[in-house]
Amino acid sequence: MENTKRSSAQPVLVVGSVAFDAIKTPTDGNNRILGGSATYGAVASSFFAPTRLVGVVGNDFSEADIARLKGRGIDLEGLQIDQSGETFFWSGVYGENFATRQTLETRLNVFAHFKPTLPAEYKSSPYALLGNIQPSLQSMVLDQLTAGSFTVADTMNLWIDHARPDLLALLPRVSLFILNDEEAHQLTGEANVYLAGPKLQSLGPKIVLIKKGAHGAVLFHPEGLFSIPAYPVTRVADPTGAGDSFAGALVGCLAAAHDTSIATMRRAVAFATVTASLTVESLGIDRLEQAGWEEIDRRYAALIKLTTIGCS
Amino acid sequence: MENTKRSSAQPVLVVGSVAFDAIKTPTDGNNRILGGSATYGAVASSFFAPTRLVGVVGNDFSEADIARLKGRGIDLEGLQIDQSGETFFWSGVYGENFATRQTLETRLNVFAHFKPTLPAEYKSSPYALLGNIQPSLQSMVLDQLTAGSFTVADTMNLWIDHARPDLLALLPRVSLFILNDEEAHQLTGEANVYLAGPKLQSLGPKIVLIKKGAHGAVLFHPEGLFSIPAYPVTRVADPTGAGDSFAGALVGCLAAAHDTSIATMRRAVAFATVTASLTVESLGIDRLEQAGWEEIDRRYAALIKLTTIGCS
Known about the structure:
Oligomer: homodimer
Number of strands of chain A: 13
Order of helices and strands of chain A: EEEHEHEEEEHEHHEHHEEEHHH
Shape of chain A: globular
CATH architecture of chain A: 3-Layer(aba) Sandwich
CATH class of chain A: Alpha Beta
Number of domains of chain A: 1
Helix content of chain A: 25-40%
CATH topology of chain A: UDP-N-acetylmuramoyl-L-alanine:D-glutamate ligase
Largest interface: A-B, 34 and 34 residues
Mean pLDDT of chain A: 95
Largest sheet of chain A: 9 strands, mixed
Strand content of chain A: 15-25%
Low-confidence stretches of chain A: none
């Protein structure tokens, strides 16, 4: 691809949680899935650009887990290993058709004391993904980054409910804000995404991306609008991490092109869409890891074919 | 536009209900709106191809109503005027954000005895829209059409619930079947549109189009898939007739190009999308009528811009 895997690809910093998840769906289940926003984000980004991870794991994080991330070429100099406890653990159960998700247990473990600390080399990262963690921790990352970095922040309903002032303080400092349609509604009071988008831009970030799950995504960019349907998936195995890998692929793609014009962002959102479609086809990162670049690229071509209206 | 308003445009037959609607929304209301599936369908089609209407009206249908349809160039030879009673009347109220619709009253009036009868010239119509009415009446239209007509059938939840055998008998006889995602789920048992689409094709129609309201539409065609988001609308005034005008514009566009390949259908679905976006911006056909071809064409160009990923 013209805009990826180029030798000019810039490094991407991914900061977030690294976790073990125990997930039960109507059809699948696993009690020890390598997950967390930084894991999904960094693995997705790694297909497009050199990727660096900042996070924390505990004394139960194995050599095999490390090898798995290194296998994707991810730089782990910023991964803190805290021997005082176990890795962040989350367990949840999905209902029929993934219409509901219930958290059974959250054990923060070593993540409770996590302070993101950027190794010297990471501080000048030209692209950074602030994965879904507390907005105050996301702000700490910005404090350490040198000016001029293109920063992308993801969030979730929990922070809109319980850390809204921190989130509102973060937003003017980020370049691109990603959230889903329900969160956009919750944060702006607007149910219509085309009204919510500009309201979110007025909170600070020049670029806003609203995800609509199985209905695709809408990009609000100073140069214009872009709307894309989801990649057709006929069997969802586990939606966990879809948003994180969407964000990771998006940032990776921008770093690969070293450009954030709307033309590049259209392609990046399309690559993010197909990367997320692979994530949901298995528990954890299994499917994405196995599918690899070839399948991402094949789906990208299929997505262009799926959405092209024709010549005007 | 290359594919519309050409001198080779074929005539379109539209059959359905002509009604007066009394509608109340959270922001608007009117007790005598010219509506019905044939009205919306024929008006939409009239922007693209010569259009003929078959339906029935009563003794309260005024010269001004007739003039309004004729003003769009619609051939009304097939419009029956039944002096024995009043025109089909429906009244309903929409809830907040149009999440709910409650029927207050339905008076079939002269529609209760309606039997679609095609004037001789209409029987060879190369394109026909069987607007949303009872499937048994839609079948009566097919009985009168000569072989080789490209036929499009629309439906609604009422017929899936109460006239399923008639609908299942109709489907193998139509070329293209249009319905929304909830109806597709209801008819096939599949919540996933990409599973429901092929199931619907297996019921007979070679081409199936599933509408997803504010989330766009997906086309299932023997030559491939096509997915399109909705045109961005920031103020919905009244969604009544959106589906009917979508269908009318779609058929009109195919008739204008006199082609039903996937390449033409992609453009037709896009024109249908923008035509429906105008319909929802007012009660009845007011906005669509006033906007005219220029606004349809402008929105079509904007929709291409909105959805283009880029060069592969």
